[in-house]
Design brief:
The protein contains 7 helices and 3 strands; from the N terminus they run H-H-H-H-H-H-E-E-E-H. By secondary structure, it is α+β, with helices and mostly antiparallel strands. It has a 3-stranded antiparallel beta sheet with strand order 1-2-3, with helices on one face. Helix 1 packs across helix 4, helix 2 packs across helix 4 and helix 5 packs antiparallel against helix 6. This is COMM domain-containing protein.
C-alpha cells in the first residue's frame, strides 16, 4: 500500500476497515454531512445527540464512530490538497483498502467538492488573458567594488512584469535565500488554510 498523497498508518488502515463495515445505504448521507461541515469549517461535525443516533443507525459504539469520522476528515483534508483524475483516485482508494462501494461514494463526493474550485480557476485564467505576468532573471558576479577589492559577489536580478508595471530586484545570495524561506512559509500557510 503506497500512495504519494497520503501516509498509510495503522490508524488509517483501522479507520478504513471501520468505514468499510458501515451500511452503504446510509454512508453517503454520513459522508455528505462530514464534507459539508468541513467546507464550512465547523468545529463540531456532529452533536452528541447526532452521534448517539449514528451509533444506533450503524450499530457501532462511540469509539468506532469517532474513528470513522476522524478517518474521513483526514482523508478529505488530504484529498483537497491534490487534483486527481477520478479513475486514478478510485484506484488509489481501492489500493489503500476501501471497498468498491465506499470508493465510489468518496470519489463522487470529491468530484462534487472539487469541480467548483476547478471552474473558478478556469474562469480566473480566462479573465486574465490580457494580463500576462512575466518573470525573468539573470545572474551576475561583481568581481570587485570600491569597498572590497578582488572579491566575487554573486547577484541575482529578478524582473517581474505585466502590461501595467515592471519590478526589478537585485538580490545577493543571502537575500535570495531569505526570499525563498519566506515564499516557502507563505506556501505552508496557504496549505494549512486548505486543511
Amino acid at each position: 500500500m503506497n500512495c504519494s498523497w497520503i501516509k498509510i498508518t495503522q490508524k488509517l488502515v483501522k479507520g478504513i476497515l471501520v468505514i468499510n463495515q458501515l451500511d452503504d445505504t446510509k454512508f453517503e448521507q454520513f459522508l455528505k454531512r462530514i464534507v459539508i461541515k468541513l467546507r464550512l469549517q465547523d468545529t463540531e461535525i456532529f452533536t452528541v445527540d447526532e452521534r448517539k443516533k449514528l451509533q444506533v443507525i450503524f450499530k457501532i459504539d462511540e469509539e468506532t464512530l469517532l474513528i470513522a469520522i476522524k478517518t474521513i476528515i483526514y482523508l478529505y483534508k488530504r484529498l483537497l490538497k491534490f487534483i486527481f483524475m477520478p479513475v486514478d483516485l478510485q484506484k488509489d482508494l481501492m489500493h489503500i483498502g476501501f471497498n468498491n462501494e465506499k470508493t465510489e461514494f468518496i470519489v463522487k463526493m470529491w468530484s462534487l467538492e472539487i469541480s467548483p474550485t476547478l471552474s473558478e480557476l478556469a474562469s480566473k485564467e480566462s479573465n486574465k488573458c490580457g494580463e500576462s505576468l512575466n518573470f525573468s532573471w539573470k545572474l551576475n558576479t561583481e568581481l570587485s567594488s570600491s569597498l572590497q577589492k578582488k572579491c566575487k559577489i554573486p547577484k541575482a536580478y529578478l524582473l517581474i512584469s505585466n502590461e501595467k508595471e515592471e519590478n526589478e530586484m537585485e538580490l545577493t545570495h543571502s537575500d535570495l535565500y531569505a526570499m525563498f524561506i519566506q515564499l516557502e512559509s507563505i506556501q505552508n500557510d496557504l496549505d494549512n488554510l486548505i486543511l
